[in-house]
Design a protein that fits this description.
This protein is an alpha+beta fold. The protein has six helices and nine strands; from the N terminus they run βαβββαβαβββααβα. A hairpin with a 5-residue loop joins strand 3 and strand 4. The longest helix is centred in the N-terminal third of the chain and has 19 residues.
Length: 211
């Protein structure tokens, strides 16, 4: 695995009820949920674009998707079932809860997963497999959410509080601002990341120039 990525697993039987129910429907034979985390180091990596087919992609997810495919192939060739959960299409699974169960980090006030070294700057992918695996991330650091409250103040949708993240309120605000409509010749999707940019945890990605 490249240094930019980390991998961890959680037993499906030990996942929270909602996530466990998802895997039971998605792959009844699934015994393990594999979480792949990619460290986002530049703003461009996490900038999404609309494809000609109408889908969405970004460099971070392209890389994570490629690695997931490699893992799927290896597991399948070893005689196991393996299937990546669809993303960015709506799957019904919240990856951060699976990642937290796998020990990859903890969920912060702004609902991002906080990695011990990278803070909120991590892109997640999840694979279901019938293989029984126990892989724990080898990480160290203290970049978990410290409940400083900066994201609460910065959120333009007022969707974040000390103990609640209102996902629908966040999404509605962003939709009204046209964030789900492609912009410019590259068909860029300019999603709000204010709660991540103000976060003092982790090293913020390198900003990119915009016209």
């Amino acid at each position: 695995m490249r240094p930019c990525c980390t991998i961890a697993t959680a037993s499906v039987s030990q996942l929270p009820e909602r996530e466990r129910s998802f895997f039971m429907a998605f792959m009844p034979s699934a015994r393990t949920a594999i979480t792949l985390g990619h460290h986002v180091t530049t703003e461009e990596e996490w900038t999404w674009y609309v494809t000609e087919e109408g889908g969405e992609h970004c460099a971070a997810d392209d890389h994570a998707s490629e690695l997931c495919h490699m893992i799927e192939v290896e597991l399948t060739q070893s005689g196991y079932e393996a299937k990546a959960v669809e993303y960015p299409r709506t799957s019904g699974l919240q990856f951060r809860y699976v990642a937290q169960a796998a020990g990859m980090g903890t969920i912060g006030t702004n609902a991002f997963l906080f990695h011990p070294e990278w803070g909120p700057w991590i892109h997640l992918r999840v694979i279901a497999t019938s293989a029984k695996l126990d892989i724990r991330p080898k990480v160290s650091g203290d970049q978990l959410c410290n409940s400083c409250g900066l994201c609460i103040t910065a959120c333009p949708a007022c969707a974040i509080s000390e103990d609640t993240f209102l996902g629908l309120q966040c999404r509605s605000y962003r939709k009204l601002r046209g964030e789900y409509e492609p912009y410019g010749p590259k068909r860029e999707l300019r999603y709000c990341l204010r709660c991540a940019w103000v976060c003092p945890q982790g090293e913020s990605p390198q900003r990119r120039d915009r016209l």
